[in-house]
Every structure is written in C-alpha cells, then in structure tokens.
Model the fold of this input.
Amino acid sequence: MAARQNGFNLKTESGGSRVHGERRLFSLFLRLDVILDSKLEVCQAALPHLNDMKKMQDSNSAAALIPNKATLENLRAAVRNCHACDLWKNATQAVFGEGKAGAKIMLIGEVPGNQEDIEGKPFVGPAGKLLDAALATAGIDRTEVYVTNTVKHFKFEPRGKRRIHQKPNAAEIAACRPWLDAEIGVVKPQIIVCLGATAAQALMGRDFRVTQHRGEFLQSELAPIVIATVHPSSILRIPDEQAKREEVKRFIADLKKVRKALK
Done:
C-alpha cells in the first residue's frame, strides 16, 4: 500500500509539474503576443514618417532632377540644383558637360578642377590645355566632341589660398551617375573615351584597370566602342621631362586610335 501511495504521489507530483509548466508557457506566449502587438503599433505609427523620409531622400537624388524629356540644355539647368552629395556645399557651381548632342566622341574625365569650378566649363585648366593640344595632334576637332566629367562638382582640400584637387569617393560617384547616364543618353556617342581610372571604373566596374586595358576597344551597352586611357592631369604630374614627353606621345597615339575607329 505504501509503495502504491508513493507511486501515486510521484505520479501526481509529476502531472502537477507538467500542468504548472504548461501554464507558465501559456503565460509567456500571452506576454509575447502583447509585446508583438505593441511593436506592431509602433511600426505602423512610424511608417508614415519613414515614407516621408524616403520621399525627402528621393527628392535630393540626382535622378529626381532629370527631366522627362532630357536635352543638354535642360540637363545643364537642372544640375545647378543638385544636392545629391555634399560636394555642392563648397564648390562654386556644378560643371556640366560641353559639346553638342550627336557628337561622335564623348570624353569623360574625373571631376572639375579649380579653373573649371571658377569658369563653369570642363577641361579649361592646365589638363584641358594638354587635352586640346593632344586632340589637335591626333586630328580630332575639340568642337566636334563632347567633354564632361564623372562628377560635376569640384572636390578639393583647402591649403592656404590654394584649393587642392581630391579624388571623389564611391558614394559621390554613385550620386552623380544619373547625370552622366543622362548625358550619354542624349549625346549617343559612337565612342566613349574614359580619361583616367575614375571614369573607367565608373563605367566598366571597380575592378577595371587602365594599366591593363589601356587603348583597347571594350564592349559596353553605353556605346558601340569604349576605350580607356590616362587622364591628362596624370601626365602633368610626371616629374621627369623626358618621361612626360613619352607619355604625351602615348596619349596622342590612343586618341589617334579613336579617330581611326570612326572611319
């Protein structure tokens, strides 16, 4: 009898523990349900504000400023209001491309320099003068090509009274990409010439190396021919005069290849 009582008592205690555990689990589920309901209410209340924030971000993007029927004229007017990145805050003005729609050759550089920022035109500084001379030697009329930059605002570091050029970062390049795409879409060039690594990597991917593919005709959806070469400013920075002259010759040879490709 004692054994039975002990057995009976053990069974009863085991069943009671199980019931008690189930009640605690049920209570926990109820508490979680209440917490989830409250979180859901908070999310639903915040949703309109998140949508407003997204609209504000979208309104500040370059893509939101691109006219539906884009022309070089209305793009040039629209870019003046671009705040897609912070470069506009310190730059004098946005520097849009120069040339005409239908130009067979489009030259794309990196970012406006000090002189470009002042005048509001691309490639009018020392690198632009070298480019003009190289184009003339290669038999290309600059007035017949379209010239622009990957990024439209001057990026610089102030040093005393001087403004020292800085390379744009990936976020700034991405923020400005809608303008470049719009220019390509309006001009519809037969050949795009990427001047330097920034332009080449913006169009051909971050792994692209100008040193490996310089002067090659590359396949792209952007134009029938894309070719990459150095930026003329990189030539100006070469300290040795003999090496600089040799690099100018290579640069001209790349441009001659472009001219021959049009025939």
Summary: The first strand starts at residue 105 and ends at 109. The chain has nine helices and six strands. Confidence is low (pLDDT under 50) at residues 1-13, 49-59.
